[in-house]
Amino acid sequence: MTTLDIATDIVCPPTDLWSDEPPVESDLHLQQIILLLSCLDWLWQDRNDYYASGNLTIYYNERQLKQRYFCGPDFFVVLDTEKRPRKSWVVWGEGGKYPNVIIEILSDSTANVDRKAKKELYQHTFRTPEYFWFDPNTLEWQGFTLIEGQYQPITPNEKGYLWSKQLGLYLGIFANKLRYFTESGELVPTPQESARQERLAKEQERLAKEQERLAKEREQQRAEKLAQKLRELGINPDEIA
């Protein structure tokens, strides 16, 4: 067998694979995934060194086409990679990178798998540094950090938020949704919330300027009335120091 024959026999595993995930469980699941994605993309809009997605297949074994070695987290973030559209996340096509953060949205049909089988997978195979789950119906909420190969619970702060070292953000429940919070505890807004806040700030600035203009106008009117009264008394207001 020649070198050419050997090279011809080598079959490289595909990297351009389509996602193979079923539809999300419910509207609550969809809304939560979109919320996590949109807020992070808004916050990191000037960054190009991460990839975040939801309900997208992660292919982590070249044998996946035969033995179905793949998994689709509800939401995940990969750091130190290129931000660009993808059909799926193919580990062997991404330099062996696995997610840095995974969040699963629990449901009646997936909760046991998310708490057990997927937790084991993310801990031992993916070795994902941080894993969280959230139930949008019961608001059950828990997070884990990988320490010496084992997931340990993340201790909540006084507000019940869990710190994500990977994201540099807190995660916590706000208005029955899982949201991001800055290190100082400020809510990371959605793009729509940010736009409303910006409009409100501009309106407040406009009102403040209008109040200042009206105050100056009233002061000028009072000064003019006083000057007129002095003139009626035979006093030149311009000569008063």
Structure commentary:
By secondary structure, the protein is an alpha+beta fold. It folds into two domains: 3-188, tt1808, chain A (Alpha-Beta Complex), CATH 3.90.1570; 194-239, no CATH class. It is built from six helices and twelve strands. It has helices spanning 3-9, 27-43, 64-67, 111-115, 117-126, 191-232, and strands at 50-53, 58-59, 70-71, 75-79, 89-90, 101-105, 130-134, 141-147, 150-153, 162-164, 169-174, 177-181. The strands form three sheets. It has a six-stranded mixed β-sheet with strand order 1-4-6-7-8-9. Strand 7 (130-134) and strand 8 form a beta hairpin. The termini are far apart.
What labels would you give this structure?
21% strand, 2 domains, alpha+beta, 241 residues, tt1808, chain A, 12 strands, elongated, 35% helix
Précis, in short:
With 241 residues, the protein is of the alpha+beta class.
Per-chain topology:
Blueprint: H1 3-9, H2 27-43, E1 50-53, E2 58-59, H3 64-67, E3 70-71, E4 75-79, E5 89-90, E6 101-105, H4 111-115, H5 117-126, E7 130-134, E8 141-147, E9 150-153, E10 162-164, E11 169-174, E12 177-181, H6 191-232
Parallel strand pairs: 2-5, 6-7
Antiparallel strand pairs: 1-4, 2-3, 4-6, 7-8, 8-9, 10-11, 11-12
CATH topology of the largest domain: tt1808, chain A
Global shape: elongated
Work out the number of β strands: 12
Encode the helix/strand succession as letters: HHEEHEEEEHHEEEEEEH
Assembly annotation:
single chain
Largest sheet: 6 strands, mixed
Instruction: Give helix % range.
Output: 25-40%
Mean pLDDT: 86
Radius of gyration: 29 Å
- CATH architecture of the largest domain, by name, is Alpha-Beta Complex
Q: Which ranges are low-confidence, i.e. pLDDT below 50, for 5 or more consecutive residues?
A: 2-11
